[in-house]
Amino acid sequence: MTNHKQVRILFLSHFYPPEMGGAAARISGLAKWLVKFGHDVTVITGYPNYPTGKIYPEYKNKKNKIEFIDGVKILRSKVLPASYQSVLVRLLNYFTLFFTALWNGVRKRNNFDIIVASSPPLTIGILGLILSKIYKIPWIFDIRDIWPDVAVEAGMLRENGIVHKLSKKLANYLYKQATHITPVTERKLTKIRKYDIPISKISVVPNGVDFDLINGAEQKDWRSELRLENKFVLSYAGLIGIAQGVNIIIETAIQLKDIDDVHFLIVGEGIEKQKLQNSVKSLELNNITFLPSQPKESIPSLLTSSDIALIPLVSTKLVDAVPSKLLEAWACKLPVILIAGGEAADMVIKAQGGIVISSNDVEGIKTAIIKLKDSPELINKYSQNGFEYVYKNFDRELLARAMEKVILKIVEV
After folding, report:
1. Which region holds residue 339: left if phi is over 0, alpha if psi is between -120 and 50, else beta?
2. How many CA atoms lie within 13 A of 67 on its CB side?
3. How far does CA 51 lie from the centroid of its chain?
């Protein structure tokens, strides 16, 4: 517990457990540790529906709900469920939560010392700004991805289109209005600086890994359950959306279909999943298994049951993205094949925790898989290097301390 005074912190997040993904893991991890440090933490979020677009069964009662997880008070607000299949539906999803969360926030009145609003979506930033004005308290704009740049880089938005231009102006306004900004990577910091934001107003607080969850995770023999005992297993566990570029795994599986002991495991949900499953079925590929999203307690045993983690991104233009699944794989002592460029590639090279291949280079991925399959000593080397790197630099407890330092500096000024 910290020696500093207790701070009453309000987190605003569109995503939160039991939803999966880096966004939910980041905010819940920071919130949990800040409670352990002695602070009072509340989260305003929606009813879990991501990425399936259906409210989770245990949350079917649509009334606003208060619950406690890991000592964090969570106030659930109504939201229009969306599977993100269109821009319009996505915007409706964002704005329904914006208005219901705003109502809940106003009803809470001024019970907080500081707000941390996690973006994307930008509507959470607007919510943070408005509530900070109402409460007359400072707010931190926590940036996981720079919107709308990431949408353009992933091919979801047209550069210089009307949505892009308006979103860019909104982001710029929010950066200037925020008391402080906490991007997750150095390259995101560099991008934010281009909006004429002073460096004194920005602190990098990276994504991290909850080693306490990994060490206490359930043990399960996935190889036996899936009948993969004698296979060389390459796993992808995460969102199956547009930006992830999981289709490259299908293309690689086609190239390796005649090697009987190589098998691909794809775990998760998302708007691209059904299309990929249809493709696998039509191609009659027997070297790919799909699994639905798993509880976070199951992911460590799933990864440790694999030989390699595959970490793709749809484009090398996503230069400032560092997928949280990369850190999680290393934390489970799993070497990676990163199919991306930018900061994530720099990290893999620096850590010597795997092999980096350019996006869309199917032949390169195939070569890397065969190389690792035939080199158990190289797998062991990458496993140990990756684990040591993430343990030293990305333990969530240490990063929560970094966020706490930012918070205390602001509220004690």
Report:
1. beta
2. 16
3. 12
Residue 387 and residue 399 in one domain: no
In terms of residue numbers, what domain contains 120? Answer: 8-208+395-411
**What predicted TM-score, i.e. pTM, was given to this entire model?**
0.86
DSSP 79: -
Indicate whether 280 and 336 sit together in one domain. yes
Nearest 5 degrees, angle CA 94-CA 84-CA 266? 130
* 270, 305: one domain: yes
3-state SS, residue 49: coil
Q: Cβ contacts of residue 158 below 8 Å, gap of 6+?
A: 152, 164
Q: Alpha-carbon distance 374 to 9, whole Å?
A: 51
Q: Is 109 left (phi over 0), alpha (psi -120 to 50) or beta?
A: left
Structural domains counted in the chain: 2
Place of tokens 């199917």: 362
Mind listing the pLDDT tens digit for each residue in 220-259? 888 888 899 899 999 999 888 777 888 999 999 999 998 9
Q: Are 285 and 257 in contact (CB under 8 A)?
A: yes
Residues 171 and 158 in one domain: yes
